[in-house]
Design goal:
The structure holds 2 protein chains of 2 kinds. By secondary structure, chain A is of the alpha/beta class. Chain A is 37% helix and 14% strand. In chain A, the strands form 4 sheets. Chain A has a 7-stranded mixed beta sheet with strand order 2-8-7-6-5-3-4, with helices on both faces. In chain A, strands 11-14-13 form a 3-stranded antiparallel beta sheet. The two termini of chain B are 18 Å apart. Classes of the chains: A alpha/beta, B alpha/beta.
Amino acid sequence: MLRAIGVAAFEDLLQDIPPELRLRGKLKLAPPLSELEARRHLEALAGRNASANQWLSFLGGGAYDHFVPSIVDEISSRAEFYTAYTPYQPEVSQGTLQTIYEYQSLIARLTGMEISNASLYDGGTAIAEAVLMANATNGRKEVVVSGCINPMRLAVLDTYLEASGITVRRTGWKGGATDPDEIAALVTGKTSCVVIENPNFFGVVEEGCAIAAAAREKGALFVVSVDPVSLGLLAPPSEYGADIVVGEGQALGSYVSFGGPCLGFISTRKEHIRRLPGRIVGKTVDKQGRPCFCLTLQTREQHIRREKATSNICSNQALVALRAAVHLCWLGKEGMRDLATQCLSKAVYAQKELARRGFDLHFNKPYFKEFAIKLPADSERVAASLAGERILAGVPLGRFYPEAGNSLLVSVTEKRTKAEIDRLADCLADAVRGEVV
Amino acid sequence: MGPGITIFEKSVRGKRSCSLPALDVPRVEAGDVLPEGALRKGELRLPEVSESEIVRHFVGLSVLNHHVDKDFYPLGSCTMKYNPKVNERVAALDGFSQVHPLTDAALAQGALGVIYELGRSLCEITGMDDITMAPAAGAHGELTGMLVVRAYHADRGQPRKKVLIPDSAHGTNPASVRIAGYHAVEVKSGPDGRLSPEALKPHLNAEVAAIMITNPNTLGLFESGICQISKMVHDVGGLVYMDGANMNALLGISRPGDFGIDVVHLNLHKTFSTPHGGGGPGSGPVAVKTALAPYLPLPLVEKHPGGYRWAAGRAKSIGRVHTFYGNFGVVVKAYCYLLMAGGEGLGKVAESAIINANYLMARLKTTYTLPYDGVCKHEFVLSGKDKVRAGVRTIDIAKRLMDYGFHPPTVYFPLIVEEALMIEPTETESRETLDRFAEAMEKIAAEIEHDPALVQGAPYTTPVGRVDEGLAARRLEVAE
C-alpha cells in the first residue's frame, strides 16, 4: 500500500508532525490481552459489584430495577441498529428513522404532549435543556425550581445554568412535596418557567394543578419531570398544565447499568417545535411518493446553526430510545397500567410492613413506587448492616440532606416479591435493634 | 407491509404482549391512596400488538439500515470502525449492567475500578493528568471542558469572553462554547488547510479564554503549528482546548499533552470502538492538565490503598454534568477494547488508519479534486466541484454510492471545501474493501461524464428512493 501511496515508509506519512511532537518510546499500557483473557479480567471485575440479580435491591433515587423483557435485548442487540451511524442519509437509515419516529410518538402519547425529540442524555440534562428552551422561548431570566427534584439532577441544572445568566430560585424540600404557595411566592413576571418533578425524589405525588396555576398566573412556562412508569396510573402532565415534559427513561427497557446509558426524554406542544433541542424525525415521502422518514428541522441544530443552535447536543441516546420504544410496545395500553399498579401495590405493602415494625414515613404524603422512612439510627450504618445480608435496603438520604441522616429512601418495583419485601422489613428491624442496643 | 407502516397502524384492540407475575400482595387501586386529581382519566394511547408482531416489526425495520457489520462506512470525522463483539458481551455482564449507581462504593469496586483504570489509560494516551468519564457524548464533553475553562478563569478573577474556533471546526464547537457563556470567534484556515500562527495573531488578547482546535483537523491534516499556536494562546493567558474527535490518527504517535493542549475530549464511540447505536449512546471523557483538575465535574473516582472510592473535597468543581457517572456501559466497552489492544495495538491502529486514508486519497485524487494535497492523517477531503458543470452535485454522488452498497462519506463538511466529500476509512477496513470503494467512486465519475441523469436520480436500489427532506420540514409530522 505504501508503494501505491508513493512513499517509502510509514514514517513518510508523518512528515507533517514536527519530530519534537512525536511520542518517544511506547505508551505505558499493559500488554495486549486475548479475548479470553480480557473476558476473564472483566468478569472478575464484574464479580466485585453487587448485582441486583444476586442481591435484593430496594435502591431507586432516579434509577430503577424494573423487569426488562427479552425482546428488548434481542432487538437492540441487532447489529443493524447498534452498529449504524446517525441517520443523516435517510435512504439507507429508514430502520433507525422510523423507530425514532415511533419513539417520539410513544413519548408524546405517554406524556400527553404533541411532539417529542429523538432523545437527550439523561433526566438531569433533560431538565437543564427544558429550562434553556423555556428561556429561549420567553427570554425571561429567572427560573423557579422545586427543591424536591432529584438532587443529582438539580446539580446538573446548576452546572448547565452557570454560564447562562439565569437565576435559580429554589423551594425547600422539608415538607417532602412542593408547596404551591411557596412556588406562588417565588414566581414573578421575570420567571421563565417553574420546574417540578412528579413523583418527586421522595416518591411523593405532587399537586401539579395548583403549581401550574401559580406558574400560569405570571405567564411562566411549566416544566414537569416525570417517572414514565408512573404514567400508567398518574395523569399525564399535559392534563395539569405542563408546557414541557421531561424525564429519565431508563425505567423503560434499560438496566440500571451503574447509572448509564440513561435516556433523557423531552416532549412539548407543537408550537414550541423550533425551540426543541436535539434531533427530530419527521414523516415525508420519497421520489416515488412512498411514505418514509428523515431528520427534520436540522436548521435548528449545531451542525447548521453552529453558535446559534438551540442546543449543542449531537449524539444522543438513540439505541436507548429504541429500547424504550420496544418496551412501550411490549407493555401496551393494558400492560403499562398493570405495571404501574403492581409498583404501587408493592410499594404500599412494603410501606405498611415497615410501618408495622416501627419505621414511619418521613413524609406523610401520597407516594407512587418509593417512599422515605425514618430509622432510629444513622441510615448509612443500617444500610451497611443490611448489606451483610446481601440486601441493598435503600438510598440513605443523609448523602443528599445532612439533616435527614436517619432516613432511608426505599424503592419497590414490580420485580420485588412479597417474600423479599417481608425479608427487608424483618432484616431492617433486626439491624435497627442491633444498632439501638 | 413495507416501510412507512407504523406500529400504531398494526395495533388491534385487545392484543397484548406484556406478562407480569400474579400480584402476591393486596392489589391497591390508585384511587384508594392517591388524590383523585392526580390520576389518569383517559386511556393510554399505547399500541396493542402481540410479541411476535413487535419482533417482526422492528426486525423488518432493522434490515432497512446500512450498518458497519454490513459494509463500509467511510464517514469522515465519525470513525466508523468495527465494533468488537466481545465488548457487547462484557458490558452486558450482570456485575455491570445490573449494578445500581447508588450502590455503596465498597460494593461496586469493580465498577469504580473500570472508570478509574480506563481514565488512567486515557490520560497516558493523551499525555494529560486527570480525567472525567461523565460526559455522555462528544458535544457533552465539549461543554464540560469549556465549563472547566470558564471555572479556571473565574477562579483567577479574570473571566474572559471569547473562544477562538477555526473555520474547519465541527458545528458542536461553537454551539458548546455559547452554552458555556462564551462568544465564538471564527479564525480562518490558511491556504494549506491549516491554522497559521499569523492568522491567529490579530485575535489574541486578554479576552481570549481559549482556542478550540481539532487536531488532526477536519481536513485530515495535522496542525503542524500547534506548538507555536499553543504558546501564543498561553502567552495571553488563554487555554488550549482540543476536540479529540480525530484522535484515531494520533494513538501512540503523538500526545495532545505533549503539544500544549490543556483540555481534550475523546469520543469513545469513535476512537475506542464502541458502537454508535444509530446516534448514541456515546461517551465523551474530558482529560485535563493538573492546573485544571480542581474544576473537573463530580463525582470522580480515586484510588487509595484499600481500593477505589469517590473523591471528596473538590470545592472548585464545576459540579455535575450527568445525573450519575455518564454512560458507564460504554465505558466498560472501551475499557475492554483498550485491554485487548494494549499500547502496541493502539500504535498499529493509528498506523493502519493513516495508511488506509492515504491509500484511498492517492487513488481517488486523479478522479476527484483534492483541494489540499500532501499527506493526510486518518481522513481526507475531496471536492466534487468539477462535477458541477455536468449538473451533478456531491449529494448525487453520495446517493449513487448507496447503489454500490456503500454508505456515503460525510458530505458538505468541512464548510471550507466546496461540494465536500470527507472520507475516513479507519484501520478496520481491508485493502480489498478500499479498492471496491475506489472502483465505485471511479465508476460514478465515469457515469457523471456519460450519463449524469443516472447519478442525479440515484439511489435506485435502496429501501426508499431519494427522500424529500424539504417536505418533512414543511409538514412537520413528527408524531402520530
